[in-house]
Amino acid sequence: MERAIAHMDLDTFFVSCERLKNSGLEKQPVIIGGGDRGVVASCSYEARYFGVRSAMPIKMALRLCPEAKVIKGDMEYYSNMSHLVTEVIQEKVPVLEKASIDEFYLDLSGMDKFFGCFQWTNEIVDAVTKNTGLPISFALSTNKTVSKIGTGESKPTGRLEVKEANIQNFLNPLSIKKIPMVGPETFNLFSRLGVKTIKTLSEMPVDVLNQLVGKNGTVLWKKSHGIDETPVIPYSERKSISTEDTFAQDTIDILKIRSILSGMVEKLAYQLRQEKWLTSTVSVKIRYSNFDTEIKQCRIPYTSADHTLLKYVLELFKKVYTRRMRIRLIGVRFTGLVHGLHQMDLFEDTEEMISLYQTMDHIKNRFGSLSVGRASGFLK
């Protein structure tokens, strides 16, 4: 049976959400980001025309497009809209993978017998726009790589089908940058060799590719030929990461507990970033000396930033610790995970804060996860 994999991507998601609240932003250059020292979290196509891009410093973006309207952004609002879109799609498909806050894969294999996969995908997109007001693009093909590339080529509000027989002709003229796993370094490497299109890449011998980029050479060769067996992984809010600490002696030392919580959050947030997860739900668990156990949780905007998560964890601890009784165990859990690049709370953080996180993660990657951290996390 031929696979039918659709990729859906909400068009300029943050900007589109703001335009739902303020129709005056329609057809205007819009930048979502945080202040003069912050960076661009998202921007409209009108702003992109002037060269504005995500992660660009706001000051640079405004030099390129002085007329742009800068909006701080509301991650909680965007997260809620993302959940709404997810619910609409999830009701209509057998297998859904939520790849990020604004990106989805659908496995519609076998549904041609009943609906016609392209027609069915069109109806799902219509339902999303009708129920949320958000524009969304999609592409349908036989695998995740081709459908994702197709969505990028069809934007904005595009609807594209790339049939199996036409996959190579579709891919050949495109830049190798369109292949999801090709980053700036890989692109520059191949560009120096004169390899800039997928067609040229597909004609290279596999062993040569492996010599250039290691074991990823074979994967890259397959993708250049439109081959990708990666399954659509069913979305579930039950995915989680967590950690607990049972004390050698029950304690009522709140400063010590807050320090332990800080260390836990930093450890889990680092894991989120390494595995490219964002979390939308935080839980704090305590067990008293009499073994009574209580848990508090809250829904939060998608993030993997230590300082943002720690704020919620400490607030939850205040709410869950209601008795003047010694504590035996403390735990933190992050759930409601979706894959995505670390948002870094781009609406609030400065370039310096983002640089700090990147530097700390680099040090941890090289010397171990305990090599650097907040002082509060070491006060045990």
Automatic annotation (TrEMBL):
Its EC number is 2.7.7.7. Residues 5-183 form the UmuC domain. The record marks 14 as: Substrate discrimination. One of its GO terms (molecular function) is DNA-directed DNA polymerase activity. GO terms for cellular component: cytosol. Its cofactor is Mg(2+). Signal peptide: none annotated. Keywords: Cytoplasm, DNA damage, DNA repair, DNA replication, DNA-binding, DNA-directed DNA polymerase, Magnesium, Metal-binding, Mutator protein, Nucleotidyltransferase, Transferase. It catalyses: DNA(n) + a 2'-deoxyribonucleoside 5'-triphosphate = DNA(n+1) + diphosphate. Binds 2 magnesium ions per subunit. The active site is at 103. NCBIfam families: PRK02406.1. Monomer. Poorly processive, error-prone DNA polymerase involved in untargeted mutagenesis. Copies undamaged DNA at stalled replication forks, which arise in vivo from mismatched or misaligned primer ends. These misaligned primers can be extended by PolIV. Exhibits no 3'-5' exonuclease (proofreading) activity. May be involved in translesional synthesis, in conjunction with the beta clamp from PolIII. This is DNA polymerase IV. The gene is dinB.
